[in-house]
Structure formats: C-alpha cells, structure tokens
Amino acid sequence: MSARSLNIRRSAAHSLMGGAALAILTFACFRLRVNPTTAALLFLIIIVLASLAGDIIPAIAVAIIAYLCLDYYFTAPLFQVAMSETLDIVAPIAFISTALVITRLTAKVRNSFNEIEELKNQLRLAIDTIPGLVWSALPDGSAEFLNRRWLEFTGLSIEEGLDWSRRVDVHPEDRERLTEAWNRAIANGDPMEIEARLRSVSGDYRWLLIRAVPLRDESGKIIKWYGMSTDIEDRRRAEEQLRRSQAELSHVSRITTMGEIAASIAHEVNQPLAAIAANAGACLRWLSGDRPNLDEARAAASGIMRDATRAGDVIARIRGFLRKTDAEKKPLDINLAIREVIALVAKEIFENGVSLHMHLADDLPQVSGDRVQLQQVILNLAMNAIESMTGIAHRKRELIISTHWGGAGQVVVSVRDCGAGFDPQTGDMIFDAFYTTKPQGLGLGLAISRSIVESHGGKLWAEANDGNGAVFHFTLPELE
User: Does CATH number 3.40.50.300 belong to domain 130-231?
Assistant: First the structure.
C-alpha cells in the first residue's frame, strides 16, 4: 500500500472519529439543554483533540461539522442553518482558527521530534562507528552507556556490560591498579588515563589505553563521566619489538666500543697477571731453599690471591658490560658507575695525553637505572671526548667529568672536553642515527645514548664549551 493511500485512509479515519465524537456530544448537550456558549466550548475541545493528530483536512472537517451542529441545534432559529446571532459568526472563525493553529503547532512539534530522533540516530551511529570503545558512567562510577564496539570487544550484552564492575575481565596484574585509579578519579574528580589489559571476546587479553573525563554542571558538580578505551595492543607489541631491536643495537655498540679500547682492557688485565707471575716466582724461590721461608712464601701466596681477585674483577666488569640482557632498572650510584667506566678507559686517557679531572658531587641521591646501559652512555661520551682531542697540539688536553644536583628531582652528569667542538648549525644533527664526523664512525653512539637516557626519563643535550670543545650533559631522575 502506497504512502498516499495510507494518508487518505488515516485522514478519513480521523474525520469519522471526530464526527462520531461530535454526534455523541451534540446528542448529550441537546438532551441536557446545554446553552449555546457551553456547547461551543465543548465542541472546541473536540476540535482541539482532532487537531492534535496533525492532519489539517480532518481538523477542518471536524470544525465545520461542529459549527453546523452548533447552529442547527443550539442557536435560534433551531433546526436550520442561519447566521442570525453573534455566536453564529464567532464560532466558525474560532473553530477553524483553532483547528489551523493546533494542527500547525502539532506538525511542528512532530517534525521537531522526528528531527531529534534522526539526530539521535546519527549520533548513535557516529559513536558506534568511532574506532574506539566509547562509554559513559554516572557520578558514582556505574556504567550508563556502552557503544557497539565496546560490546563487540567484550562479547557482553548491554545488560551484562552495564554491570561492568563484575562482568569485565581485567588482567589479574592490572585489576588492582585500574580499580585504584578509577576510584581515585571518582573521589577527586580528576581526569583518568591508564593502560591496562582487558579480556576480549576472543579470550585474549589486549592492552587498552583508558581515558575518562568528568562533565560538570554550572556549580562544578560532576553529573557524568565520559570515556574512551583505545586498543593499543599492536602499539605495545611494536614498542616491545623496538625495545628488543634497540637492545640488540646497543649490544653491538658496546662490543664496538670495547673493541676500540681493547688495548686499555689488555693493559688493565696484564697488570694483575704480571703481579701474579712475580709473586709465584718469589713463592717458589722462598720454598726452594735449604731452609724454606714459609712466612715469605705465605705472603707471596696472599699476593697471588689478591692479584687473581683483581684480575677476576676486571674480567667480570668487562663481561657485565658486554652481556646481552634486557634493561633492568635498579637503585644506582651514578658516581660509582662513572668511576668504573673511567677504569676501563684509563690507558686511553694516558696514551692520548689527556688530563682527567673528576668533580663528583658528594651526597648525590641514587638514581633508578640499568647500570650497563648508563655506563655505555658515559663510555660513549668519554671516548668521543678523548677522540675529539687527538689532533690538539697547541693547548692542554683536558677531560672534565662532573656530577651535581640539578634540582626538580634531577641528577646532572656532564662530560666536558677542549677538542674541536661541533658546528652550532648542525648541533641537533649529531644525535641523529648514522650521522658522524669521524672517518671510521658508525654514527650510532650518540643516537643510542640519547635513546637510553630518554628511556630512563632523562634528557641528553650538547653545548659549546667555554673557549674550545664541547660539553655533553644528561639528566636522570632521582630514585623515588
């Protein structure tokens, strides 16, 4: 059936119902001898009710029928239509005007309602289409609305989803942390942003970035929470792969750097080995005589043990530096880490005629960091400083390593040289991967160093030294 046929049938039905209502009302009023004014008011009510359907034709028809009934049965002369009284003139104008006004207002209201419904449907479609899990909650934190993607991700029905405190499966390692963050946001009225793992419809836990902000009224009272959870599982995996790749590259860089200072390592190991050989020879001489000197032999044996321990410490320090392991942040004394690195490059410093000055601040707070990674940063900066001064002949070669408390919870480490320095116009490029000014350089040391420092929550930057050379600074947050 066409829309036009439906409209015609609807108009006819409204006209018949309005006519029937007028017939009943006319009969009752005529039997009760209701006066014409009262009858006109009662007819007006029927016209208003008929006009609320919003159909102009049935409303006008009912208005005309009401006027005819009023003129025929209630105004003189009775039982004939004659506009002989004032009510006969006022009534049709009032009836038809009322029908037109009410019908028009009803149509506008209906159109507005339809437009609102259309906007609601469009908004719902937009919210369901957003590439994220959109939700809203009441001020007490209970769920109020969940979009289609949220329901599809969790596999819950809308009824189950609204009971999210019991139905949503959070990873056991994240449940307490997420609950505390949500309760704290509700209590303080602060926005929330947290990463946590939720079980998806497939049964796997996936990382989500969960954000929530409060909506407040004019008085500042929270009336609703709006939130969106974004699936970041792929991003987390990419970050993990990047971290592994960085660890691989960092390991290669450490091996390369240790290769550059192999002579220093050999020298440092050779000293205790030579001492061991000397003490062993002395021990044999004290024992091979006619009257063995046990005290001297015992002292030589103690020296052998002491020097063997010293050589073992050197090897252990080198192996620890070259070990391929994941980053493990622990409380760290940065001054001690610097001294251990300097022990590795002591021969390089001596052979290149560099004067080393260390100004390490006392009572520095510990930092949280991976010892091997941070020592790699210090070693890279120290070796770069030494190499930058190899061609300097007309001034003193000085390497200054210092630490100090920088305030704002930051420990500052500085490595200063008086070498060739760098071009201020290309100063930012020295931290780019594969950018190097050394003929045999890979251009990875400073890029890796900056990456390591930033992964520890710090910052690495370079400045021109006062006079000649450059100074590299990096910061590390103190241990909380």
Answer: no
